[in-house]
């Protein structure tokens, strides 16, 4: 058909005066270099939390050598896995966004850790951190709202 059928989609929107403003927090390993010919190369990074917030979701990013990614919340006497990708496929996960249910809260004094694992067996030169697809990323964009906004799971 050269002319598509008429679209009669109806959308109802409701506007409210108050809304919770969300933002992204970037958690990444920076400046790493992975040795070539390694089955389990690792990059790590962390973020010291200085303001409380709730993590609604995580958008992970690695490139073609990526295998696994994990985001953990670290407190003085506990460590909690918040998000994990165990079989990274660059083209299938490139736009992956994981909603966290229930959404965890983080507080000043908490630390967020990111660990990415790579397979560099096919590489003959070191793989550096960078945005080009021949380089690698170890990054998670955390979709957040301020703590106390009524969306968190913990006191």
N-to-C series of helices and strands: EEEEEEHEEEEE
- Largest sheet, if any? 5 strands, antiparallel
Name the average pLDDT: 89
Helix/strand-derived class?
mainly beta
Shape: flat
Q: What is the tally of helical segments? A: 1
As a percent range, the share of strand residues is 35-45%
Alpha carbon gap, first and last residue: 57 Å
Low-pLDDT runs: none
| Helix amount | under 10%
Can you put this structure into words, describing what you see?
The radius of gyration is 19 Å and the shape is flat. It is mainly beta. It is built from one helix and eleven strands. Helix content is 3%, strand content 42%. Strands 1, 4, 7, 8 and 11 form a five-stranded antiparallel sheet that branches. The model has no long low-confidence stretch (mean pLDDT 89). Strand 5 (66-75) and strand 6 form a beta hairpin. The chain has one helix spanning 90-93, and strands spanning 23-28, 33-34, 41-48, 53-61, 66-75, 78-85, 98-99, 105-106, 111-118, 127-128, 139-146.
């Amino acid at each position: 058909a050269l002319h598509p059928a008429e679209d009669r989609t109806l959308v109802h929107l409701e506007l409210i005066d108050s809304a919770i403003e969300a933002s992204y927090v970037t958690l990444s390993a920076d400046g790493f270099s992975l040795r070539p010919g390694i089955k389990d190369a690792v990059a790590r990074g962390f973020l010291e939390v200085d303001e409380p917030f709730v993590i609604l979701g995580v958008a992970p990013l690695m490139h073609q050598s990526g295998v696994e990614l994990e985001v953990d919340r670290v407190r003085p006497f506990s460590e909690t896995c918040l998000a994990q990708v165990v079989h990274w496929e660059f083209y299938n996960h490139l736009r992956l966004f994981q909603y966290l249910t229930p959404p965890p809260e983080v507080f000043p004094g908490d630390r967020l850790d990111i660990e990415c694992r790579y397979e560099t067996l096919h590489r003959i030169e070191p793989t550096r951190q960078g945005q080009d697809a021949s380089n690698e990323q170890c990054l998670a964009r955390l979709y957040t709202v301020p703590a106390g906004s009524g969306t968190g799971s913990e006191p």
